Amino acid sequence: MPTSPVAIDVLPPAPNPDSDEATFDNVAWTWSSSMPNFRAQMNALAGVNYTNAQEAVAAASAAATSASSAVSQAGIAAAQAGIATTKASEAAASAGAANTSAGEASSSASAAAASAASAAALAGAFVGTSASSISIGAGTKNFTTQAGELYTPGVFMTAVSAANNANWVFGQVLSYVGTALSLNVTMTGGSGTFADWNLSLAGPQGATGPQGPQGPTGGLAGGNATGAINELKAANITAAATTDVWSIAGNSATLVGTTAITSVGTAPQVGAKRTLIAAAITQLINSANLILPGGTNYTTAVGDRLEIYAETTTQHRVSIFKANGNPVKSTSAAAYTSRTANTQLVNADRGLFIDITSGTFTQTFDTLANLDGDWNVWIRNSGTGEITIPSSDGVTNWKMYACETRLFMKDQVGTALRSVVIVPFYLAVISSMTFTKPPGYRLFEGMAWGAGASGASSFSGSFVASGGGGGAWEQFSLPASMFGATESIVIGAGGSAVSSGGSSFTDGNNGGSTSIGTVLSVAGGVKGTGASSGGSAPGGAGGVAGYGNSGGQGGNASTGSSGAGAPSYYGGGGGGGSPWGATAGAGGASKFGGSGGAAVVGGNGNSGTAPGGAGAGAQNNFVSGAGARGELRIWGGL
Question: What is the pLDDT of residues 241-264, one digit of tens each?
């Protein structure tokens, strides 16, 4: 029984070389992929034809056998022989047709094989391999691959690790010359470095599809993680007044820039957290929505870690973990402590108010590296000693004088100690000293007195002795720039008392000048003088000041009469004159300076009082009054 022929599927259109690359690729792929099925169908058809031919030959053989045996049955077989002959002719014709069909099938199969080989070769030009060691990541990646591939610049390609297809890169061809292939990678999967790449052409990334329906809201109950949760670190975030930490593509980032931060944006939900690592000195401003430790502003140091927690979507609390491991302390609650000797100031003293009630010493500080970026202390010198500061404000070994209060702190870059004058110093100088200029002042102001002179002394009642003159007074307000790093302060010495020593009379001694280096000088009073019997001795002149604030002139003395020392409003008062047998002269008074000494009948003259008061004259070999020392009162002006 002949077998029915096999149905042959219609082949798709063959690829047209004139088509564009994407169309040619799609048609060639469809056409070449249908070849295997077509070949199978053609082979099946040839098999059917061959089977039918075999059956025909068998039938012919059977017919011949029947013809041989039909000799004895000629009558009957004649008709059957005719039929057999006819069937043999038909079988022969069928065999010829079968042979023709088999030849055509063979030709079709050869053509299909050639087409399949051509399609395979074409497909091979779209794929390749590379053993280049490439790390997964965006940007330019250079592969060494096979030559002769169809990697046209601008087309899209993928490179997939043969070991694990979860590790891949995707991008556009930048160039392909010889075996050198350069890709601009824009998408990646996995991580690591690999050298087993399978390369293939790909289509461009399609447009983003529509958003799917929102899934059901998750439950509130937590669960147990069965592995590590590896959070992503985002690119650096730059400090701004509003630094939106919630928009970064990760849970942590490095904070760069020095702009003060007043807000960190709006959190996506309550309980959200972000971590920032400070890479610069950046100030955070405390507020109701940016809550900092201690409720005060904070300036970061490099390496500080900031943990930001959303208590509400707009109110955020910041926890600070300092790079040096020290705790964050509040500056709002300064604790008072008093000291009389040096104790090195360290990080734990941050925010202290230190009252130095007495003592002269050097106050030391820990190294700046060990102090927090916002470290500060308050120091007040409420005693009379001098506190030496080793280094601050660019000045070494300067002095904190009495009454001064300062706030000491690290500067913003953390390389120097700075200070701010809160209360200026006030220094009353009564003996010569070296003044070390403290930093932070615009002016130095004050008052100065020259010393008072002493009165004269005479031998007997027939000789006379006048009082000394008072020291001058000067008020000053001088720019700090006029002062050197140190200046020598000289306090004028009062004129020393004298005695006639058995001679007719002895003049007193001048008062000394008070000065600050070459910046200021205030004159002392002029000595009292004696006169012969029956003569007259004028009182010593008061020291003359630049603004007319001279000391009081000493009292005159003449035979039988004496004069009182002249008063002074600011300078020292004059000393009283001393004649024999008359009323002794009184000392001159002063409103701000010292008063002059009064003469005494039959006794030693009185000395002047400080600052700048002059001494009185004396007779009959008694000792005259001494002049009083000068004085300098100086304070800082801001």
Answer: 999 999 998 999 999 999 999 999
